[in-house]
Amino acid sequence: MGKEKESKMSYKDCAECGGQCCKGFGIPLMSSRFGIPLALYKNALETQPARYFLYHEGITLSQDLKLFFIDKSIKIKHMGSYLYVDSKCFMLNDQGQCSIYETRPDMCRNFTKETAHLYVVPKGCKYEDSAKHK
Ligand code: SF4
Ligand code: SF4
Predict the structure, then answer these.
(1) What does the domain layout of the chain look like in residue ranges?
(2) Beta bridge partners of residue 61, listed in sequence order
(3) Ligand 2, closest atom to CA 89?
(4) How far is the CA of 4 from the centre of ligand 2 (A)?
């Protein structure tokens, strides 16, 4: 699919989207690939961000679980006042569904229309208008 077509995509329903929000996450604009503090993601919505990031391709964690690193093979793009990391979760199955839905990380569990303003969401997400990068 071409880039232009992809950017015009808009989903009203998660079922038609195929889990785009499980294929990436946001990081602060000035971040380096090498050493992003996990503490940035530790809040009322997520108490153990290490688990979320361990599930994502191209991500490694420091031994003390204080930082994560993004492999140079992973694309990072500008999204408003944030950056978006194209890193798919290993737990997303071929049907675009979470294979560990009942035990998914808090960051995934707590993502709703009401909390979307705390997240950076992919283009076309039904919560895009409420999200952090707007
Ligand atoms: S929350 Fe947004 S990105 Fe995630 S599955 Fe639903 S429409 Fe897609
Ligand atoms: S754990 Fe499940 S809900 Fe969370 S990003 Fe991965 S596939 Fe998506």
Answers:
(1) 3-130
(2) 68
(3) 6
(4) 26
Average pLDDT over the chain, rounded to an integer: 90
Distance 5 CA to ligand 2 centre (A): 25
DSSP-based three-state secondary structure for 44: coil
pTM, 2 dp: 0.89
Task: Decide which of 70 and 4 is more confident.
Answer: 70
pLDDT for the residue numbered 34: 87
Binned at pLDDT 50, 70 and 90, residue 5 comes out as: very low
For residue 107, what is the enclosing H or E element?
Answer: helix 106-109
CA nearest ligand 2 atom 1, residue = 104
d(Cα 64, Cα 49) in Å, to the nearest integer?
Answer: 13
Tokens 């798919």 -> residue: 88
